[in-house]
DNA sequence: TTGTAAGCGTTATCAC
DNA sequence: GTGATAACGCTTACAA
């Protein structure tokens, strides 16, 4: 049976001092004499004292925990962000509570409530795509809990956020294809309603326009973010636009499906059709030819999100939202690099 | 400014009853009259009452949080396990605190101490490869906190665990290559000191022996788990064993490196050399030819780990460790399937 | 430099 | 059925 844990009172009794002094000694309070501090430290080891953070939290109102909301922890994109967040927060003695929303509003709302009940010191969230309202996110702020978005954000809420510049990423990807000689460039578009994909579409069109290439809306295909969808859509593209010479996919997953279908159809990539995806999923470097893509600096995104949170709780000046927009980088590989 | 939160005392005052009654009503205590219960529920909504789990935890000793220790959250293997764990625990109203060890003992020890300070109700861990001792894991049990291992375990500790049958996975993978006609099969071995890799080596040898094929130790190559290592070792293999016709890699990452090098050398896969990896990493399905591999049921592993934990805390009978060994499944693809 | 005392928001054990 | 009270383990004015 687990015998009663040692508390600061046990240490106090042992040393014939009070619990208050023990508490101060353990917390490095400068008012405490070196002798006492040492005695307390020794006794703590001897009695195997383990601080009870819950008790301290109840008193101070700080738990040193932060909630992180992601759609799914097994998606490489979010795993990488979680990694970045945990690294930075652990160094600052914060722990990370991970909750998954599965892109659904109900799970998201439940998770937010759970986190608030646990009295987390902050919530970092990638908003679920299935969320249409956000009264529960308002509650977070009403509760005085710092809130911060990354990746997919509610732009109408005045909270800090970390995102990548989807417009710029798409622009650069398209520009690259143009530089490789492509003129009839298909865009595989994502969720019509998503700001993120709207921005990618905007970037695609801007790059074409800036290069003096006519924007042809029939070259824009709505396509889910998975290989099977990419495979299915390839036939349509080839049938409707036999003159296509480049494809910019807003998803690596769709891109790899297209790549496979093109190869099955005997079409040379990148010779006849050059391809570039988006996200720099780990698998992109392993396909043949390796898939060009746009890196979103997910690890950095997590780190910055954590840093913004730390700044926010440390600042005593009134809070003003910071929006950090990361510059995506092109990762150019065989699928889009034609010989010079 | 965050005004003072409503507590059960506020509700009590409002209804001219005591906090004890409010607490009982909120917790569904049957002794409370339906009228009171309803009044409390109404007042809770009206006053926007939000329970303070920290206060309850201090009193009850239960936090409804569980610590999960993994080497790195961005490795697909662990992301998938975390997903499984979180899904099961969230349904049981537990939250998951994720900490990363980066395969190092120091970080692991720090993480364990942090989790104990946070009074987690349990710890689920994949032991860091860099850990040589485990006095801090002993402390977890001394503290009366349920401990459970998955993936990489301390076999000398009497705690429950969930692992896959590495021996069986390796046996089946090797057997499959033999069935495809391979006779000179190289094994790419992992960490020499790791039980897990020792088991895979054992499975490889057993399958050969059972098929009446001579076990040749020079066919066993120690190789790190990354594509570059696989690429480097390919030249050695081809030089030293030009008659090799199959490769069983204990790592998908090494396997894909080998695959690339073989193709660069103009060797037909699977015709001349068939390849099978281990882990069913997401990228294996996208390489060309798609890489055969051994699936470890990571999502299930996470779910089972969580279920074992829940059983352990619910059981009132004395604790006996359960060891769950999952059967790995072959995932056969182009890299090892020769035409019939 | 240290002690005293109050309190964080709950829940549990008595009573009545 | 409900109330009164203590307690969980810690921190922090305020005193001394």
What would you note in describing this structure?
Two copies of one chain form a homodimer. The model of chain A has no long low-confidence stretch (mean pLDDT 95). Chain A has helices spanning 8-15, 19-26, 34-46, 53-60, 76-91, 105-117, 135-142, 166-179, 195-210, 227-240, 252-264, 298-314, and strands spanning 65-70, 95-100, 122-125, 147-150, 160-164, 185-189, 220-222, 246-249, 274-276, 293-295, 323-326, 329-331. Chain A is built from twelve helices and twelve strands. Helix content of chain A is 44%, strand content 15%. The radius of gyration of chain A is 26 Å and the shape is elongated. In chain A, helix 1 (8-15) packs across helix 2 (19-26) and helix 10 packs across helix 11 (252-264). By secondary structure, chain A is of the alpha/beta class. Strand 2 of chain A pairs antiparallel with strand 2 of chain B. The structure holds a DNA duplex (16 and 16 nucleotides).
């Amino acid at each position: 049976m687990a015998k009663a844990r040692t508390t600061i009172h046990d240490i106090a009794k042992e040393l014939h001092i009070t619990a208050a002094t023990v508490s101060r000694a353990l917390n490095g309070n400068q008012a405490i004499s070196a002798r006492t501090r040492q005695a307390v430290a020794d006794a703590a080891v001897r009695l195997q004292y383990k601080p009870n953070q819950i008790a301290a939290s109840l008193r101070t109102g700080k738990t040193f925990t932060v909630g992180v909301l992601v759609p799914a922890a097994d998606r490489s994109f979010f795993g990488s962000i979680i990694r970045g967040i945990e690294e930075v927060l652990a160094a600052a003695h914060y722990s990370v509570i991970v909750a998954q929303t599965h892109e659904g509003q109900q799970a998201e709302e439940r998770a937010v409530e759970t986190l608030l009940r646990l009295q987390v010191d902050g919530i970092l969230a990638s908003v679920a795509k299935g969320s249409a309202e956000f009264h529960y996110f308002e509650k977070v702020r009403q509760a005085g809990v710092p809130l911060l978005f990354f990746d997919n954000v509610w732009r109408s809420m005045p909270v800090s956020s970390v995102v990548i510049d989807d417009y710029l990423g798409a622009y650069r990807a398209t520009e690259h294809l143009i530089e490789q000689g492509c003129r009839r460039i298909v865009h595989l578009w994502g969720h019509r309603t998503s700001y993120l994909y709207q921005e990618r579409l905007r970037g695609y069109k801007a790059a074409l326009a800036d290069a003096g290439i006519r924007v042809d809306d029939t070259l824009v295909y709505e396509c889910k973010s998975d290989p099977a969808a990419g495979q299915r859509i390839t036939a349509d593209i080839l049938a409707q636009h036999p003159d296509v010479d480049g494809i910019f996919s807003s998803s690596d997953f769709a891109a790899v499906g297209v790549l496979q279908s093109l190869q099955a159809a005997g079409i040379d990539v990148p010779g006849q059709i050059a391809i570039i995806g988006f996200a720099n999923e780990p698998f992109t470097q392993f396909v043949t030819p390796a898939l060009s893509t746009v890196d979103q600096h997910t690890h950095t995104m997590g780190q910055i999100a954590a840093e913004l949170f730390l700044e926010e709780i440390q600042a005593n000046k009134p809070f003003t939202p910071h929006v950090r927009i990361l510059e995506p980088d092109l990762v150019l590989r065989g699928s889009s690099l034609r010989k010079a």
